[in-house]
């Protein structure tokens, strides 16, 4: 993981955890769920962008991705985004100080509204990420169960 964009974030107040993002990159870049995993792309230098393979989605879903930002103090933002023929779906899991919610909160789909819903995320980053990936898998399954 390169060091670009690792200054303090205004919402978290902490610098990026480039080491943790590197570990996540190493894990997800070999995961067959993803067609591509980009480390700190120029358009989003503070995050990993994980593009899901299209095989998990019906043709009406043009793209699906998970954007991951993690900070040295354990704060994070995990933003799941789908582009559909007729609109978008956004869902975001957050841990950061907020004037609209508790530190742990979720902006639920389909439009990730603010204020969000207060929640509790696991303390260990691996468990928090695993929970998010499992929730996305549930959504992917729902596309095929509805037919």
Q: Uncertain runs with pLDDT below 50, 5 residues or more?
A: 1-10
Helical content class: 10-25%
Let me know the largest β-sheet.
7 strands, antiparallel
Q: Average pLDDT across residues?
A: 91
Instruction: List the helices and strands in order.
Output: HEEEEEEEH
**Helical stretch tally:** 2
Backbone CA Rg: 15 Å
Strand content: 25-35%
Computed structural class:
alpha+beta
What is the number of independent domains? 1
Overall shape: globular
Distance between termini?
41 Å
Strand order of the largest sheet: 1-2-3-4-5-6-7
How many strands? 7
Describe this structure in a few short sentences:
This protein is an alpha+beta fold and 147 residues long. The protein is built from 2 helices and 7 strands. It has helices at 18-28, 125-145; strands spanning 34-39, 48-52, 61-70, 76-84, 87-95, 104-107, 117-118.
Q: What report would you give on this structure?
A:
By secondary structure, this protein is an alpha+beta fold. It has one domain. It is built from two helices and seven strands, in the order H-E-E-E-E-E-E-E-H. The chain has helices at residues 18-28, 125-145, and strands spanning 34-39, 48-52, 61-70, 76-84, 87-95, 104-107, 117-118. It has a seven-stranded antiparallel β-sheet with strand order 1-2-3-4-5-6-7, covered by helices on one side. A hairpin with a 2-residue loop joins strand 4 and strand 5 (87-95). The radius of gyration is 15 Å and the shape is globular. The model is unreliable at 1-10 (pLDDT under 50).
